[in-house]
Design goal:
Length: 571
């Protein structure tokens, strides 16, 4: 075999893989054939696009909806029928961790392309695959930082006898600096407009840069009290987000026909036939900056609609209470909040994203239990499902659930790796945290666009609104992020970087209020323990230890290289 393939094999052995990775169709190409033609650089880079976050089942780093390291199932806002040990605070050191080995294996491939690009005679013609390799190298290293903190920084494909493979981890700050450098360079190499949907462009580099710099900037601020480093990073986050905003290539998805349902249908745009009342398809999506693409007719790894509608994913009372009322105030302050007495009263006069994400009792809906929308008019109401939430937490979800006729596992939505709403929220938070203030003008060009997308009558968030209603600007900025990005794999990472996990995570996970409400006489589910306020207790005894800010390194990697050292508190 060629030198390339031998080096790949060596790398796989070092990182505990059972066999060499099959780079089909690239592994069997000769050394000269692989790297002597520009087209082969692009061919090699195409494999990178299978590494981003997706719906998938399993617990790997790329799982967006199932129980992966970033999943909301590991947060405080949702739960399921069984205890999640990560959410409960009782996870232990694993013997092995496929995330660790997979991330480094994939970083090797990005480095392999970049190393060979150095000797290519015309780098201009391979600028795009070089930019893609840099973007993915940054993406994968950022995963390692989020999961493990300090991590080994690899910027070259290493031979099996390299001392670096057996050395200590690099400080997270060093790794973050390289990630930033890679993304900044990627922005200069990637096309201003992606060649096709789901491909990287300059905006995707800047958008990811805003995510990385905001994450680490707030980590440094709230964990290390390092204001200088924090402001340096937050400035990068602000500027990167603003670069995407000023480029004008993306906007929040909204359609007049869909109206307040634009948020809900954003997540179910497909190309396999009518999938919303406006007959919009993926080409009409103005919001997704980087996606994991799915074609109509391809089988998914996750039965998405069944997993995300009805009684599989259990929202909590805390999640429901996050949504503002239409007067822009939280439930504890609002005069238009209707209380909890009736089955649906708490859904009235609320942020329309609440109905876009959750099902209320008696709501008409369709899914792949055999009830489909076919006319896309009120006639469909003659053959539909009616939500019955009287079990488990008493709350149910509908985000990601399709309504068109489609077989289980064959939904074909794209997964949003980065969408424009996140960029706008990144901007608002970065601006605020730099000086703990933000102008109304900055709010209007960022957060308020997200807030008012499906809530045109809700008051804007402004400094005077915060002051006159006794609100806290930081809390409201974080609320908008939490609500907008629910069930997209951000919540637990946000709690960690804000250093609020010790307060939020130990709280009991609660369901609907039963005592003194409609549910008291009409509850049809299993008997539940109630707290002193009469709310269902889903899970109690939850704990938090500061070691949980980082995942433990797997035991097998420490045996291979003791110099890695275990993360604090896990020894």
């Amino acid at each position: 075999m060629t030198k390339i393939y031998k080096t790949i094999c060596a790398f796989c052995i070092i990182f505990g893989m059972s066999s060499c990775l099959d780079l089909d169709p690239k592994a069997d190409l000769g050394d000269n054939l692989v790297w002597s033609k520009a087209d082969n650089f692009q061919l090699f880079a195409n494999q990178f696009y299978g590494w981003t976050r997706d719906f998938q089942s399993g617990s790997n780093y790329a799982s967006g909806l199932s129980d992966g390291p970033h999943s909301d199932y590991r947060s405080d806002l949702i739960c399921t029928s069984s205890i999640n040990t990560y959410s409960q605070g009782t996870n232990a050191i694993p013997a092995t961790d496929g995330n660790y080995t997979t991330l480094y294996k994939r970083i090797y491939y990005t480095n392999l392309l970049l190393k060979n690009a150095e000797g290519f005679d015309n780098q201009n013609v391979i600028a795009t695959p070089m930019g893609e390799a840099l973007w993915f190298r940054a993406y994968l290293h950022f995963e390692l930082v989020q999961l493990y903190g300090n991590t080994q920084l690899l910027t070259t494909p290493l031979d099996m006898d390299s001392e670096q493979l057996y050395g200590p981890r690099d400080d997270r700050g060093v790794v973050i600096d390289q990630i930033i450098k890679d993304l900044q360079q990627a922005a200069t190499l990637l096309p201003a407009a992606p060649a096709a949907a789901g491909r990287l462009g300059k905006d995707a580099a800047n958008a990811m840069l805003s995510r990385v710099a905001l994450y680490e900037g707030t980590w440094q601020k709230f964990h290390n009290n390092n204001s200088s480093r924090a402001n340096e990073l937050l400035t990068i986050a602000k500027n990167a987000a603003e670069a995407v905003m000023s480029a004008g290539n993306y906007s929040l998805f909204y359609n007049e026909t869909l109206g307040k349902d634009s948020y809900r249908y954003l997540f179910t745009l497909e190309d396999g036939g009518q999938c919303n009342p406006a007959n919009l398809a993926k080409k009409d999506n103005t919001e997704y900056i980087m996606t994991t693409r799915h074609r109509d007719g391809d089988k998914m790894a996750l039965n998405i609609t069944h997993a995300m509608q009805g009684n599989v994913c259990y929202p909590t009372r805390k999640m429901a209470n996050l949504y503002l009322c239409q007067d822009g105030l939280p439930v504890e302050k609002s005069k238009v909040f209707q209380g909890y007495a009736q089955a649906t009263s708490e859904f009235q006069n609320r942020d329309n994203r609440m109905d876009g994400t959750m099902l209320y009792h008696g709501e008409k809906n369709w899914n792949n239990d055999g009830k489909w929308r076919t006319k896309w008019t009120d006639e469909d109401l003659n053959d539909c499902l009616t939500a019955n939430v009287r079990s488990n937490s008493g709350y149910q979800t509908q985000k990601w659930a399709v309504e068109r006729k489609v077989d289980d596992y064959y939904e074909a939505m794209d997964y949003p790796v980065i969408r424009y709403a996140e960029v706008l929220l990144n901007y608002a938070e970065a601006v605020y945290e730099m000086g703990e203030n933000i102008s109304d003008a900055d709010l209007d060009k960022s957060l308020n666009l997200v807030r008012l997308r499906v809530n045109p009558d809700m008051p804007k968030l402004s400094n005077s609104f915060v002051t006159s209603n006794g609100l806290n600007m930081r809390e409201e900025i974080r609320r908008e992020r939490s609500v907008e990005l629910l069930l997209e794999g951000f919540r637990i990472d946000d709690l960690k970087r804000w250093a609020t996990a010790p307060t939020e995570m130990p709280q009991d996970q609660l369901g609907v209020k039963v005592t003194g409400t409609w549910f008291e006489a009409n509850w049809s589910g299993q008997a539940r323990q109630l707290n002193s306020d009469g709310c269902i207790i889903m899970y109690t005894g939850r704990t938090w230890n500061d070691k949980l800010y980082l995942y433990p390194l797997p035991s097998d990697q420490l045996q291979l290289n003791p110099q890695l050292g275990q993360n604090p508190g896990w020894q």
